[in-house]
Amino acid sequence: MKCPFCGFIEDKVVDSRESREGDAIRRRRECLKCERRFTSYERIDEIPHMVIKKDGRRESFDRTKVMAGLLRACEKRPVPSAKLDAIVNTVEKYVQESPERERPTSKIGEMIMRRLKELDKVAWLPPFRGLTYESSGRNRTRAARNQAPA
Ligand SMILES: [Zn+2]
Questions:
Q1: Separation of alpha carbons 69 and 65, rounded Å
Q2: Which of 18-27, 44-53, 83-92 has the highest mean pLDDT?
Q3: Is-contact 12 35, C-beta < 8 A?
Q4: How far is the CA of 18 from the centre of ligand 1 (A)?
Q5: Whole-number Å distance between alpha carbons of 128 and 71
Q6: Closest CA relative to residue 62, chosen from 136, 134, 143
Q7: Using 50, 70 and 90 to split pLDDT, how confident is the model at 48?
């Protein structure tokens, strides 16, 4: 790391410790030329993009999950998988462009349904309409049954 005092590019790390919040590594460095000390911080660069589920829980966005749901919804429909891939890309872009780095799954679900409707008049209809980011139509029906009061 370039010395802030003399510009020399070689140094040695004399101390290395985690910040109090645990979100950064603080390194004390010593310039090999002028021997002055300076500090560098190492942080995680990539914060994952999150989705907020209906129950408020968050999980990291997973595009394979979106694709799995779409493939399930279109199982017996004449929808080319390249078109489904395009939907997944749109959804991914939507999540990545969020300034808060997170999007609700309900919005994602709406988005998927809208695109799907444009592609195929049947795939989006009930019982297929159960498709959301969270689960396939079938799983959702089962979950609803399990949650129904006895
Ligand atoms: Zn120096």
A1: 6
A2: 83-92
A3: no
A4: 24
A5: 11
A6: 134
A7: confident
